[in-house]
Batch of 4 targets.
Target 1
Amino acid sequence: MKSVEQHVQDILRIVPAPEPTELDLLEAHGGVLAEPVVSPVPLPGFDNASMDGYAVHAADLASASEEVPARLPVVADIPAGDPTPVTVRPGMCARIMTGAPLPNGADAVVPVEWTDGDTARVTIDRPVRAGNAIRRAGDDVHEGVTVLHPGVRIGAGEMGVLAAVGRRSVPVHPRPRVVVLSTGEELVEPGNPLGHGQIWESNSFMIAAAARDIGCEVYRHGFVGDDPTTVLETLEGLLEGADIVVTTGGVSMGAHDVVKAVLSRQGVEFTQVAMQPGKPQGFGTIGPDKTPVLTLPGNPVSAFVSFQILVRPALRVLQGLPAGPLPSVWARLTASVTSPPGRRSYLRGVLGGPAHDREAERTVRPVTRQDSHQLSALADADSLVVVPENVTELPAGTIVETLLLP
């Protein structure tokens, strides 16, 4: 059997490095930034008021009190966006709105709540410190500073930063287009009635959701039966809109393992990987554009684990990201576990212990239903316990590597 690491490397060799594309901001949402973004201006670009009030000389209010308030003539009204230069001399003030530029001479803003709100001669009943309620130019970002680095996924916060520094478009690695297809004559679309020996199809929903969780654009074709001609024609028809195709089912050694039978003739390689669950695997390229196709086992848990361990690195590469493994922590087993000899097991687990405290010890509880067909336990699991190939049993209390599921 082939090692997990070797199989991942073999898959990555058929996955093309993505070319960045310049996209308008909203179209770039969900993509991965392909170059540094430098701010051409300071943010804010000018001193401005952080609240509605009055721009003043703080020294004019040094002795102001409720008993003896200061009364200052209002010489200007400054709304946000007003380009007119304004100067405020000592003994005077200007009414100012949030975000409006601070007038020349003023060194503080008095909140309107501290005043009587008059528009001709305002009464202020307390002193104010210099700099109050002022956002200074560049106190968020200095001109020439890199605000976003390559490899960041563009979400709402990143989108706001890009717009704030004046970018109308940005080069990104767009979300990979993943086509998901399951095979099997026994499958029925959820919501339809079941016949004898049939099951509702779940793999394509699960794999589509897993790909979407990590930032891909996903098309779930659903499933096809076990007719070789139909399988091949369906796959070929899906290639035009796909950066990668992921199938489940039909990859083992049975008489009706149609994916293996059909794609072997197209040059796709089928092999056994030293992992549990997920031993039967296939990978290769098909079609004129050599579209990568990854074929996973049909047992639901096998398909899910295979996606996280083998497919996820390929999808990260297609996004312009490093093909790293799932993040992991070390945790103490709360129960003993077993593993077949010569295969690395990935056991579903539930982490315990405070995740925010680095000094506190984490625990991990293996779920009780570990067979590859027992899908319900996936909903309980938030991690995968790794049992190395040369280990067949680990007692409770053992510290184990534990992969964090998205």
Target 2
Amino acid sequence: MNKSLLLGAIALPAIASAQDRPNIIYIMTDQQGAAAMSCAGNPDLHTPNMDLLASRGVRFTNAYCAMPLSGPSRAAMFTGYMPSQCGMIENEMPLVDSLRANTLGSLIAAEGYDCAYAGKWHVNTLSIPDGEFGFRNIKDNGDIGLAESCVEYLCGRNRKEPFFLVASFINPHNICEYARGQKTPHAPVIEPALEECPNLPENHAVSPYDASVLRFEQNQNYKLYPTTSYGPDDWRRYRNAYYRLTEAVDAEIGKILAEVDRQGLWKNTVIIFTSDHGDGNGAHRWNQKTVLYEEVVGVPMIVCLPGGKNAGTVSEALVNNGIDLMPSICDWAGADIPHGRPGVSYRAAAEKGAEGQPYIVTETNFNQTAGTLGWHVRTPRYKYVLYDKGQYREQLFDMTQDRGEMRNLAVETKYRDILLEHRDILKNWLKATPGPDRTRHLRFIPE
């Protein structure tokens, strides 16, 4: 062997140094839809810090949650399983003992990362227990003081080891309190003149062939859906409140980014920004979540790579921001992905512009009302939706021409082959993603 090569090999450390592995910052909001950012082309709000992330990273335009409800969505992120697989199909359900020591935080901590968590946890307690799931709790649930806790952590960290920091904000979730006429606890909402409020969305009306079970669900729980009697002016005020709450959390995110900038962490840090699910925000006269409308299941997602690689680009790759988080973080951290997790890493999509997955699936369960089940399959062009009951429970939309989901193609014969193709995708996914009640779930797919 060449002597100089041998000396060079000896000089290398046995394992990668901390500087060779990126720091990871995961910033999450709650109940923010993908369109609720000015960088997404929305003129009704101004989100300079989310825009900054988009200018320094890759913005994914086809990112979806695993389930449009907080607890199940977060369970998917930190266990790597779909909610129906790990049994967390509604809020406040405990994580099974067999998974408690095998979560994302514990995997990354085992790789030598210092793991810290600030804010809302909800898997299933609102705040993460300190020292559990691989994380140190540096701030309990609540937006006030959360950003400051993250800044303090970044200032006091051990600079010889990589870190994994989660900053989990509540807003714009306070829109739930606003709809009920309650005080918004984590940020105030100032009511302007009606003329200054955003107008109604183009898909404000309920489409003619919408799933009938959704109105049934809406009428089951006034506390969740107090907007059933809303008129146009009420919805405009609602939309104003939603966007102001989004701007409030954007300002908090800005405090963390300012510290990232001050310390020059951009050069060796992966920053991921997303939300656990969206909000109806007046589309199809819907507030809240759980439903499979695009405004609810579509989430913001931006990945900033070390050194500003691919800064300011947009990816149409399909991402499930729940189950795909674990393999992605493991990919960057050099950790092995536990066997049986169904997610796919989006690192290649962010770094190399890879096309990504041929489809992703989101599931839902209206456990808080009448118990309706549903699934949506998103392929590059189409979105297929299936509920377990009611008229027009099967839906198909062309997402290149009808992102607002106003024309249900499932009722048109000429789209029959595409409909059957998507039925088969869902059927095969249910078979390949084992979980409780899968045999019963398969029976809901029409023949």
Target 3
Amino acid sequence: MSSLFDLTGRTALITGSTRGLGFAMAQGLSDAGATIIVNSRHQSAVDEAVAKLKAKGCSVRGAVFDVSDEAAVAAAFAKFDQDGVEIGILVNNAGIQFRKPIIELDLKDWKRVIDANLTGAFIVGKEAARRMLARGRGGKIINIGSLTSHSARPNVAPYASSKGGIMMLARVMSAEWAKFNIQTNSIGPGWFLTEMNEPVINNPELNAWVKSSNPAGRWGEPEELAGTVVYLASSASSYVTGQIIYVDGGWLTTQ
């Protein structure tokens, strides 16, 4: 059974992976045997994450690019090609949050979130899939959604719209590429203890609401996503495609 989850010999690119859920998923994929590539827009963040992961014994390299910059993404993949790096697993995790009521929301902030969260997954996914298709050995693409892929919340219109879109993007990718042995799925994380959720964590009322509204009665730890991402990246999920798996402690069951 363990061979189903063995990622030895595979290379995984995890976007937005220098901290939080992305870092935890990178660590989980490495623990399953994959060589990992961590990504951020910032060289210093990538260097720090690579050093931390190497200290843990991971086979890791860094890639600095903005997922929403098509030219930068193309250049990064050209460098992978030049170095003989074959990405067989892509985790589209990069994303940002912006909280404001719709009627107060500026178009520039709407576009900034959509570009980072949804357009970036399209750009990076296209570059990765183009090479997976050319190699003819299949691949895995995992788009990171959210509870807002399913359940709306006030004041997060661009974020929720992007996460609903990223789930549908995975389904369309699946419809186009499943016949080429490329499985494309989504993960919908619930309330996790990450930097992005600090405004909620640090608000006593909201913090209490998160815990009381969740059957698990607590926040999720980033490491608790590792099993799901390894499953979707491995041959154990070879007939699973176009799906979203919510990892939320049961939160959606009560909504």
Target 4
Amino acid sequence: MNNRLFLSWFFTTVIIAVTSCSPRQDDILVLTERGGQHGPFTDAALEWLADEAAENGYAITEINTAAPITKDFLEKFDVIIQLDYPPFGWTEEGQQAFQEYIEEGKGGWIGFHHATLIGEFREGYPIWEWFRELMGGITYRNYIADLTDGTMVVEDDKHPVMKGVSRTTVIPDDEFYIYDKSPRGRVRILATVDEDSYTTETDIKMGDHPVVWTNEDVKGRNLYIQMGHSPKLLENPDFTQMLRNAIDWVLKNNR
């Protein structure tokens, strides 16, 4: 082999080797609500996510409506973060695309707060039955409108999402939704809220009150976090550790 051919072969081989060894960028879709009373939490969460993305090499794409969601659109993303966005107002095509994405393990999902506003209280929006089953067959019933601090209690410290998270941590100024029943028995519960720890006097209680869980009956890793009202959450090291763990755990399903 002459020198010119050898150099051409050498540099081509090096480029291929470097390319094949380079880590693939993780693409995260963030579906948000902007403004309103939950706006400050969304803003703080997006700022936190931007910092994490810069540190870990994620690419973040934000949309403020579910309208763009189709099968082809979701193929670009490894994870969907549903940041205080409700499960109604989606197109039928978007619902089907998301269902396939999760059932077939094409990507993962992390949902916050408004993601379990499951009910027929919004005129013109029937219940998305598949999504209700993903969330453990629950229907939203009420919330603590006056806001309250409450103590989150880790129930499943063996799960990777709870690695390094304190057994108890105070969640500030949240609404703590209640449902027609607990999702326990249909999903894996990772944490609950101690209703006796509420700092606001209220009769809006469930008894057994899960606030973090995952459904292991689908291929796509998924996590629901009921909290998501106050920007103070992003100052809580246990909350941010849980969120950091969740992103890493969900992403590992696609790597």
